[in-house]
């Protein structure tokens, strides 16, 4: 799948169908296969088809040889590694739902996963960091910017809009991140 054809927008019927979702699933497969080859990983449970885990924003369970079991959220971002920022999803707005469900916290804030595995296909790398450090970076950046904070607004599909913050990677997140280059 070509990265240039994968787009969001108000002309898309659903963001969870079609090329946008297929591109994300490709990235998830890359990360899951990479995890299975890690020497410290005993087993990986794929939770992506389990509805409660989808709603919780957890993609897999990682069983390490040391006995620890960790939950991970996997994301794919073709801009990661070529732009100076990392995307932090703060909110998803549903324009057609009942007003009691008009918006919900973005995956970056609500996922119970301990780890974030961000696949950067353009540079063929996986960025690994603790979700708590990702959120700490968000807090530090938004605290510093306050009145000058700019949100990145994305027309997700015809009924949803996503509100993001682009956090400067080098200044706020790099110190917490391990970057793994994939052999191509």
Brief digest:
This protein is α+β, with helices and mostly antiparallel strands and 184 residues long. It has helices at 18-36, 51-56, 107-110, 131-145, 169-173; strands spanning 41-46, 60-64, 69-76, 85-94, 103-105, 115-120, 125-130, 152-155, 160-168, 178-181. It has a single domain (3-181), classed as Trna Endonuclease, Chain: A, domain 1.
Q: State the distance separating the first and last CA atoms.
A: 16 Å
Assign an overall shape: globular
State the helical fraction: 25-40%
**Tally of alpha and pi helices:** 5
Tell me the layout of helices and strands.
Layout: H1 18-36, E1 41-46, H2 51-56, E2 60-64, E3 69-76, E4 85-94, E5 103-105, H3 107-110, E6 115-120, E7 125-130, H4 131-145, E8 152-155, E9 160-168, H5 169-173, E10 178-181
Parallel strand pairs: 3-6
Antiparallel strand pairs: 1-2, 2-3, 4-5, 4-9, 6-7, 7-10, 8-9
Provide key terms for this protein:
184 residues, alpha+beta, Trna Endonuclease, Chain: A, domain 1, six-stranded mixed beta sheet, 5 helices, globular
